[in-house]
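Q: I have 259 residues here and want to know how they pack in 3D. Can you give me a structure?
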Amino acid sequence: MATIEDLFGVEGKVAVVTGGSRGIGFMIAETLVDNGVRVYITARKAEACDAAAEVLSERGECISIPADMTEMDEVARFAGLIAEREDRLDILVNNAGATWGAPIDEFPESGFDKVMDVNVKAPFFLTQALLPVLRASGTADDPARVIMIGSIDGIAASTTDNFPYGASKAGVHMLARHLSSKLVSEHITVNAIAPGPFESKMMAFVLDDPAGRAAIEAGVPRGRIGSPEDIGGTVIFLSSRAGAYLTGTVIPVDGGLRT
């Protein structure tokens, strides 16, 4: 009979987490590090990325490689550095994201482009660049895992004026499904997680206000915002033997908010 460790153990795996210096990305990196995964985190701001890796390195193995994933030469540089250090990549978490809010009559093209570039274009081209090391990892019994971080705003329309954000996250969900259909025969699974409200810079404008936090929590059927264990546990599931048969799925982690 399979044990908990057989089903959910990830010790010894190698992972990349984009946007790993804060918010959901940091929570994911922290959980993986705590469970014996060697984790590479990347973020656009080098100082923040290095500081996060220093904190996480007190708990396990975490390496900072700052990079701007919206620049194709930076994507190539980052992928090259991973290939120099590792002969395989077991887990890729495409988490880095951006949002932009403005009234519909005033929404700028620059804001729309930024959100789509960070949220949709960057994860596609990073996955493409890392395919050689992902292919080197995947086997029939233990495929390489690509995990896209989408959003519940990609499942149901938000009430806020972040028009490209929801569209981009719906795109992330479909991108996961499309990539999964192309890569499944190469022993690479691709799944998406659609988080609800978690502590993050994107949510700070609401959650830093006690009344705003209370309103968000009251609107979630589970009565609270998400915790590091909620998002980290879902990533562990998808990265472990327990999740090896899933591909092309979108898993809402939202406390029942979009049910």
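Q: Anything worth noting?
A: The chain has a mean pLDDT of 94. Strands lie at 14-18, 38-42, 62-64, 91-94, 144-149, 188-195, 250-253.
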